[in-house]
């Protein structure tokens, strides 16, 4: 239903000059919200139109950096439920095409728990686009045009109680959908399933925290975490959990998969931090992958909070980010 909102907008990215104000989505939503036909809106002076859509826009919602191509974004993936290879998820996900009947169980310390469909969720939220840097803990990065909605919109709708201190997320567990969840030849699981992640409540409420339903103007492909995945651009990519089926509001810091599997290497906060090296490699620089060579066009310096310090640094004042990683 609401997927019509995230189809067919690819052309807007072609020249890589999108600004949130200029965006097709905002214009369309603005027109729709006012209940105006295209004709009526067209007859308004453009300055009246601009005045109405001119709102303070978080500078972190966009970037002038070159986008990674759609081919790169959708064919170089980490999605261990399919495979640990970067190129395989795209091949293996061809038949994984969940629709708007996808169910998300939202529970815990909230006033409005329930099993909601993606269609319900999209009918309550406002789909917009965000162009974010994605920095993987493996020291490569991309720039990705996502479509989706601000996580805080959904959180406000389900009305957390004062006991809700963290939000926990879970990916679908299904060995028929995700062959990577089967035991390997030696009888071991690659990771403990289901994949789980979490955010502190104030992190989840930060305007940058986003739930993506589309990428490059199309519904999310399976390999990118269809039909609903988290995007937290100031944290290492593993926090951006894919194909979410459970969202639970809890009092205690929740379990997260990578921390569980390697607590000396991966933390709960996992904020991008060039000064804290991974025990096995440096985090000072990253391989920025933009074009179809897939190897990365250049190596650039990694920025604290992946360059989103202005938006998020205050969340961590007083914390020792070398220790609380
Ligand atoms: N469920 C699940 N979510 C996941 C992963 C995964 O293996 N399983 N990989 C994470 C990692 S390590 C990264 S870098 C990003 C990659 O997202 P992308 O493939 O859309 O670029 O997804 C994250 N979310
Ligand atoms: Mo990652």
Question: TL;DR of this structure?
Answer:
This protein is an alpha+beta fold and 325 residues long. 20% of the residues lie in helices and 20% in strands.
Q: Assembly type of the shown chains?
A: single chain
Instruction: Domain count, please report it.
Output: 1
Q: Can you summarize the main beta sheet?
A: 7 strands, mixed
How would you spell out the order of helices and strands?
HHHHHEEHEEHEEHEEEEHEEH
Q: How does CATH name the architecture?
A: Alpha-Beta Complex
Features:
325 residues; alpha+beta; 7-stranded mixed beta sheet; globular; binds ligand MTE; binds molybdenum atom
Topology diagram in text:
Blueprint: H1 24-33, H2 38-43, H3 46-53, H4 70-75, H5 88-92, E1 103-108, E2 114-117, H6 118-124, E3 128-135, E4 140-150, H7 151-158, E5 166-171, E6 196-200, H8 201-205, E7 210-215, E8 218-219, E9 229-231, E10 244-250, H9 257-261, E11 285-288, E12 298-301, H10 309-312
Parallel strand pairs: 1-10, 4-11
Antiparallel strand pairs: 1-2, 3-4, 4-7, 5-6, 5-10, 7-8, 7-9, 11-12
The chain binds ligand MTE and molybdenum atom.
Structure characterization notes:
With 325 residues, the protein is α+β, with helices and mostly antiparallel strands. The protein has a single domain (4-316), classed as Oxidoreductase, molybdopterin-binding domain (Sulfite Oxidase, Chain A, domain 2). Helix content is 20%, strand content 20%. It contains 10 helices and 12 strands. Strands 3, 4, 7, 8, 9, 11 and 12 form a 7-stranded mixed sheet that branches. A hairpin with a 4-residue loop joins strand 3 (128-135) and strand 4. The radius of gyration is 20 Å and the shape is globular. It starts with 23 loop residues before the first helix and ends in a 13-residue tail after the last helix. Mean pLDDT is 86; it is low at 1-56. Ligand MTE is lined by residues 77-81, 134, 136, 171, 195, 224-225, 237-238, 240-243. The site of the ligand Nc1nc2c(c(=O)[nH]1)N[C@H]1C(S)=C(S)[C@@H](COP(=O)(O)O)O[C@H]1N2 has 17 residues, from loops.
């Amino acid at each position: 239903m609401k997927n019509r909102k995230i189809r067919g907008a690819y052309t807007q990215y072609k020249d890589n000059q999108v600004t949130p104000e200029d965006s097709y989505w905002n214009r369309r939503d603005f027109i729709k919200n006012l209940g105006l036909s295209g004709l009526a809106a067209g007859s308004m002076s453009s300055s009246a139109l601009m005045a109405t859509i001119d709102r303070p826009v978080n500078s972190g919602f966009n970037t002038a950096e070159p986008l990674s191509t759609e081919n790169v974004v959708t064919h170089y993936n980490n999605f261990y439920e399919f495979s640990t290879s970067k190129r395989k998820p795209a091949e293996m996900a061809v038949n994984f095409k969940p629709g708007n009947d996808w169910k998300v169980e939202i529970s815990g310390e909230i006033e409005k728990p329930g099993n909601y469909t993606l269609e319900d969720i999209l009918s309550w939220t406002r789909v917009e686009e965000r162009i974010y840097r994605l920095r993987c803990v493996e020291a490569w990065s991309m720039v990705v045009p996502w479509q989706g909605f601000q996580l805080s919109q959904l959180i406000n709708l389900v009305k957390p109680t004062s006991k809700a201190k963290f939000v926990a997320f879970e990916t679908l567990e299904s060995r028929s959908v995700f062959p990577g969840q089967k035991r390997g030849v030696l009888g071991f699981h690659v990771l403990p399933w289901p994949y789980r992640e979490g955010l502190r409540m104030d992190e989840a409420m930060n305007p940058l925290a986003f739930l993506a339903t589309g990428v490059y103007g199309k519904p999310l492909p399976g390999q990118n975490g269809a039909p609903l995945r988290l995007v937290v651009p100031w944290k290492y990519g593993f926090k951006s959990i894919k194909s979410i089926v459970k969202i639970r509001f809890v009092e205690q810091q929740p379990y997260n998969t990578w921390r569980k599997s390697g607590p000396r290497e991966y933390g709960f906060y996992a904020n991008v931090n060039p000064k804290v090296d991974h025990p096995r490699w440096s985090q000072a620089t990253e391989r920025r992958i933009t074009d179809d060579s897939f190897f990365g066009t250049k190596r650039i310096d990694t920025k604290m909070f992946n360059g989103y310090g202005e938006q998020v640094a205050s969340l961590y004042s007083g914390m020792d980010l070398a220790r609380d990683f």
